[in-house]
Each structure stands twice: as structure tokens, then as C-alpha cells.
Amino acid sequence: MTTHRGSRDKEPLAAFEARVHALEDRVTLLTEALRVLAHGLEDLPAAEPKESRVADAARQAHDLLLSAGD
Hints:
By secondary structure, this protein is mostly helical. The protein has one domain (14-67). It is built from two helices and no strands. It is elongated and about 55 Å long. The two termini are 34 Å apart.
């Protein structure tokens, strides 16, 4: 299997791996933030989500994203 890296062929492998690792970390963080938001919106199908629960989930997701420092 051939890996095509395009214009990054001259980039050292360690730098390339570091970039991939950083992207993986960001995807993990975004996934966690979305999980927290979804959890805050979950409720019985017939019931409206509680505003305080939604607000808490939004605040937690925001805090997660801020903790990344980027």
C-alpha cells in the first residue's frame, strides 16, 4: 500500500506523526464536547429538555474546548 503525502514529502516523519497526533487529540476533544452536549439534550422523547441541564451541558462543552488552549 502506497501512502501519498503530496507536498509534505520532505517533512520529516516525526513532524508528520506529531501533526497527526495533534489532529487526533482535537478530534477526541470535539467528540467529547459533542457527547456532553448530546447528553444534556437527552430526555424522554415526550419531554422537553430541561433548560438548566442544557445550559450545564453547554457550559461543560465550552469548558472542554477552552481547556485545549488552542
